Amino acid sequence: MAEKTVTLTDNATGKQTELPVLGGTHGPEVLDIRSLYKDLGYFTYDPGFSSTGSCRSDITFIDGDRGVLLYRGYPIEQLAEQSSFLEVARLLIHGELPTQSELDDFEHSITHHTMVNESLKNFFNGFHYNAHPMAMLTGVVGSLSAFYHDTIDINDPENRVLCAHRIIAKMPTIAAAAFKHMMGEPFVYPQNRLSYCGNLLNMLFARPTEEFEINPVAEKALDQLLILHADHEQNASTSTVRLAGSTGANPFAAIASGCAALWGPAHGGANEAVLNMLEEVGTVEQVPKYIEKAKDKNDPFRLMGFGHRVYKNYDPRATIIRKTCHEVLDELGVGNDPQLELAMRLEEIALADDYFVERKLYPNVDFYSGIIYRALGIPTEFFTVLFAIGRTPGWIAQWMEMVGDPEQRIGRPRQIYTGAAKRDYVPLHRRR
User: Fold this and answer.
1) What helix, strand, coil percent values describe the chain, rounded to 5?
2) pTM (predicted TM-score)
3) 5-53: which CATH number, 3.40.50.410, 2.20.28.60, 2.60.40.420, 1.10.110.30?
4) Domain over 57-408 is classified CATH 1.10.580.10
5) Which residues does the Swiss-Prot or TrEMBL record annotate as the active site (predicted)?
């Protein structure tokens, strides 16, 4: 029996049940309702599962009220300033910060798994020239199981680690191939001499006709953005990966399902929505007008990239990336892009406006990430693909944790049925 319980009484029958109270390292306690249906004959109703704890997890913790984000207990601020994306990826998967030799081994493994089978290039030829890059990414990631079907035994810990390394390594290669297909340019192969983000930039922007020089400011900014997006607790795409994985599906299929969920504009498309909003505002002169529209509850206009559903205080990721955003703009310049100048003016006004300050509607990570991607010359429809690359270590870590959890069962949410009651079939000639 748990030390702490809650007694639930059915007022219609007088029946009672004792529900154990479970607690974690941080966060609110939860009621264990697994005996609710057996004892009282009820399920719970929680649209969107926003009040339901679906699993136990050691990976990520968020305190939205205090603006806290921890990966394996480490504050995101420390990791973003001092770590690298691959070190964070290994931390998420294995649970501890690596030693130098462990990190070297991990980086070597990722670097030497970046190549994809040549046959995979044929998949891209099957996509229309203007296919959305997320459609290509989702389809091609799912197809990886056809190439590695002999090493996807989810009950083998070594197979799970090998799949994790392959997915993290190949995501940039697949993403860059989708980008090149979208741009009508030849694919660029990965280079083992380059860093993870340096390789990604090279595969995106290098051409056979000229040398491409990787800008270290851009490389650092991209690495930091991937760290900030690496995991975010049980969000929609992560929960999708877990739900798909709970069926015993192979990890490539589970990660492809996460890509599909991330594609939604309410999730991974938020930074794209920021640039669409800037397009609507149009010019710097229009900013005061649109600030007033944003304050008007009856006006449909909303300032995208301000505030956050989870963070009721300042998004801790935005604090970090704001500095990097300004470094990128200083390095690459905004003189030729009025939209970037507009974004900086909007940030300046909103941060000084009492209406937004009082409501804690600060710029979030999506606001700054969209601006950085724009400055790097990345098309808006490709933003979510970069988000997917960053989120992959989190997805795979959550999948590995789920597969290894003895309490995990196949996901099977319940419903309130509101359709027709039982009725008899009416032959076609008798229907009116």
Assistant:
1) 55, 5, 40
2) 0.88
3) 2.20.28.60
4) yes
5) 308, 366
